[in-house]
Design a protein that fits this description.
The chain is an alpha/beta fold. It contains seven helices and 19 strands. Helix 1 packs parallel to helix 7. It is elongated.
Length: about 325
Amino acid sequence: MATHSTKVLIIGSGAAGLTAAIYAARANLKPILVAGLQPGGQLTMTTDVENFPGFPEGIQGPELMEQMQAQAERVGTEFLYDIITEADLSQRPFRCVGDSGDIYEGETVIISTGATARWLGIPSEEDYRGFGVSACATCDAFFFRGKDVCIIGGGNTAVEEAIFLTNHANSVTLIHRRDSLRAERVMQDHLFANAKISVIWDSVVEEVLGSTDPKAVTGLRLKNLKTGKTQDISTDGVFVAIGHTPNTSLFKGVLDTDGEGYLVTKPGSTTTNIPGVFAAGDVQDRVFRQAITAAGTGCMAAIEADRFLVEHGSNG
């Protein structure tokens, strides 16, 4: 077991954590980044990324994360591959314990542990993830221009994304396990008024159907929960919109969270309710959940951590 001490301890290695690392290292704060359970974050599970500025031909998600990490390391970030299992934020320096048994001490902490998309949990969904199955309409709608797509869910996110998809897709079919939506009424009104959108009620996805060469989604097998009957429908893409789970269990009861478990930060800031602890990226963003917005808040967190250290005489 070893003890690692730093002025800026970054937990999580997605776009937010890596950007925070770049800015903190360039400020000569010698940050330590603990990579976590999924080094590189959600983008390592994404294929084509065409909406990140600076890549006119697009870039593969894993490659983008590799380049961000290489940049962070080049400017002085120390990367450690461990998973934080305990966090004591009661006093500075803050003290975290890794799965390895190592101890990590930080004068400041930037939490960028992200959020995990909720999936249906069926094998065929995993088989076609990235080949027609997605959990982010705003990321991937572009690839379905003029095609027929389905979206799974019944809350605000599902309805918002269904409406958004009509800007690209030929038709959108929303599939919901109940006979009414949970989304706000005004959003439902917009949904039902859109001629491109149809709804299949009381149904769940039993299987994602697809081809192998090329690997692509071709349809869905649905089961009606009231009648028990199954039906196959054709579709070119499936968007799962049943919510995200922020990775905040480590900080439960210590840091303020909202009703869905996202870390609460001061408006226009990444500061949490504990001075010196900052939150960036999807762990505190329940609205946008984009790589570019995560990177932006990672930048903010590093700058705010630097200012905090200056104010507390710890940046020398």
